[in-house]
Design goal:
With 252 residues, the protein is an all-beta fold. It is built from one helix and 13 strands. It has one domain (5-251): Lipocalin (Beta Barrel), CATH 2.40.128. Strand 6 (81-97) and strand 7 form a beta hairpin. The protein is elongated and about 70 Å long. The termini are far apart.
Length: 252
């Protein structure tokens, strides 16, 4: 596939992974809500039966065609334990034009994700995380292939998939300069329970404008490799979603 590609993203979510840990005294619960927007690129491969669509999207392609998503995050922290509840919905659509035997591939996918995370602070700056994530996909694929004798032929497939993934991770949060904090989170999971493998990396900076109001800039990377079924019921999603984010945090 070449990179003449279009991707649109519509997202509404409550996403606790993007809330920077609040500074709570032991035993006192601190709450943080973050409202932010995130751009998302999509690359990898989706297959239903014998219909396979490769997606290869550069960040320049994304900024040319991207619709930003509206997102929110919530987190509660008492200095030792943290709890976050996440719900995400994204509507993804991609078209790639290729060469040789494949002329064009189309992907339309609705993705809903529900996550629950419990964190345990190991040091003042380091947290251990355990997450259960439920993923639900509804996918339509279309491939237009070149025929040996000339002309073209289109193949379509539609399918839905859902699974639950356990994830384990670490989150590192540290202050620097005046009113600035850096947060880095990484999770891995799947382990064959739901998907074969899934991962997430999140890095952000937060500038604390006041006791309650902050501004967050960051970048998020999510990937998963899910495979199930046989023959015409076979499904595989090996996808990576990534993009920058910016938002406002409110602490109380």
């Amino acid at each position: 596939m070449n990179r003449h590609t279009h991707l649109s993203v519509i997202a509404v979510s409550i996403l606790g992974c993007c809330a920077t840990p609040a500074l709570a005294a032991d035993g006192d619960w601190e709450h943080t809500v973050v409202i932010y927007g995130m751009g998302a690129a999509l690359d990898g491969e989706a297959q239903i039966g014998n219909v396979k669509v490769p997606i290869d999207l550069s960040m320049s392609d994304v900024f040319d065609a991207l619709e930003m998503g509206a997102m929110a995050a919530y987190r509660a922290d008492n200095g030792t334990w943290s709890i976050s509840a996440d719900a995400t919905f994204m509507g993804l659509g991609g078209t790639a034009e290729g060469d040789r035997e494949i002329l064009k591939g189309d992907l339309d996918m609705d993705q809903a994700t529900f996550m629950g995370t419990v964190g345990r602070r190991l040091t003042p700056n380091l947290e251990a995380l355990f997450t259960l994530a439920y993923v639900d996909l509804s996918t339509d694929l279309k491939v237009t292939a070149r025929l040996p004798g000339g002309g073209s032929e289109s193949r379509k497939a539609s399918e839905g998939a859902s699974w639950v993934d356990p994830l384990v991770g670490l989150q590192y949060n540290v202050p620097f300069a005046d009113a600035w904090r850096f947060n880095l989170r990484g999770d891995i999971g799947g382990f064959g329970v739901g998907s074969e493998f899934t991962y997430q990396v999140l890095a952000n900076f937060r500038w604390q404008a006041s006791d309650t109001l902050g501004v967050i800039f960051g970048y998020r990377l999510i990937g998963f490799d899910y495979e199930d079924g046989n023959g015409s019921d076979y499904e595989r999603y090996d996808l990576t979603e990534q993009g920058p984010l910016v938002g406002v945090s409110i602490g109380f």
